[in-house]
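Chapter review: from sequence to fold.
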Amino acid sequence: MIDLHSHVLPGLDDGCATIEDSVELARSLVASGVRVLAATPHVREDFPTTPKQMLRALEHVRAALDDARIDLAVVSGGELGFDYVDRLDADSVRAFTIGGGERFVILEFPDDDLPANLADRVAHLQGLGFDVILAHPERNPVVQAAPQRLAGLVDAGALIQVTAASLTGAFGTAAARTAKSLLDSGLVQLVAGDSHRPGRRPTIADAMAYVPRHLATWLTHDAPAAILDGTRPPAPPVGGRKRFVARFVR
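The token string follows.
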């Protein structure tokens, strides 16, 4: 499996605090079946990670995993804060693209509200040449009230990544219900762990028990593998429900 969202880099944000935490988290993810992991530290007001800091920490983690003989490929990335991304120039955004592929970037979905300029912010990044992955929108209460609000953003090219812990119910009933609704509607392309510390959150393997069987491999391998190759995810396998036709509602 391929997990494109984690906070495995030590000392940069609210994720792993030490390199020992990073190694233990990596070990547990490998045991769950993950073979490729994107290191996506927060890049926002409270954690203003720079590309240089991210790359230095990434090399530290890679060396530690080699020393520990842990067979996990860790690639670069970042989770850009919604209210912070406009402070970054195109080169900085490019440095935080998944796997350094210069195309796909994770945008952290706002926690509490649905900003009126959300669609504009996504369009701005697209205009700079980036494809936007919206991280964990199912945890937002406005989305929980009407998940189909996201359909217009997906129609406009945004990708949706839900968190494994949402699907398992670890983030509460509302997040679980919304994640399932988005999956059933065909709006989700990725499931990610969003792991912060070893043993603290369910893995994507845990979440597969809550995902339609025909989508499991697509969500955890086919779609993320395409992103690492710099291409849009392939069409999902046939077998799920048809997606509602709806437009983004501010």
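Two observations follow directly from the output. The chain has a mean pLDDT of 94. The radius of gyration is 17 Å.
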